[in-house]
Design goal:
The chain is of the alpha+beta class. Helix content is about 20%, strand content about 25%. The chain is built from four helices and nine strands.
Length: about 190
């Protein structure tokens, strides 16, 4: 089932998410719904806060960008309680977009070599070194679990320059091609 994507300005996107355990009710269905939502929205990743849940769950299917970034080919990950360790390397600037910020993309600096620890949907532990664009996708989605958005990584000048677009999302003037949940109106 496709779920609405929570958009910029919604408080759920700014909260730190909680770990979940194997007794989490309805986990399989939630993960299926997250993938369905991500695919319907034409994303390559989706974090639980983006569907209104502050739980440490991320789904990624990076295969659609595998032609451009070979490390992404065939990579489909369900990350529960992920932990990132930054490894060596200088940050690289690349464009990023986000389903919670429709119509926007900005250049963001991120390292391109990380160690990722997580459990899968069966709570089997995994650990892997990840590089390149796949590492960027993982960092972007895991930022959501910490209440961060990619625009938090851009300069204040850039934020001022996109302020009108951000206000468009806040006020509901910006529309997207997928079901969305806008920020509550201020009274």
């Amino acid at each position: 089932m496709r779920l609405p994507v929570y958009l910029y300005g919604h408080p759920v996107l700014r909260k730190t998410s909680s770990e979940i355990g194997p007794d989490y009710a309805g986990l399989k269905e939630l993960i299926e719904n997250m993938y369905a939502t991500m695919y319907a929205s034409e994303g390559v990743g989706l974090a639980a806060p983006q569907i209104g849940l502050n739980h440490r769950i991320v789904v990624i299917d990076a295969d659609p960008v595998g032609d451009t970034f070979p490390e992404c080919a065939g990579r489909k990950l369900t990350l529960i309680n992920p932990v990132i360790e930054v490894l060596d390397g200088e940050p690289v600037t690349r464009g990023e977009g986000c389903l919670s910020l429709p119509g926007l993309s900005e250049d963001v600096k991120r390292v391109e070599h990380i160690r990722l620890k997580w459990v899968d949907e069966n709570f089997e532990p995994h650990e892997e070194e990840i590089s390149g664009f796949l590492a960027r996708i993982v960092q972007h989605e895991c930022d959501h679990l910490e209440g961060k958005l990619y625009i938090d990584h851009i300069s204040m000048i850039r934020r001022q320059l996109i302020k009108g677009k951000l206000n468009g999302i806040l006020t509901g003037r910006t529309r997207c091609d997928y079901p969305a949940k806008y920020a509550p109106k201020k009274r």
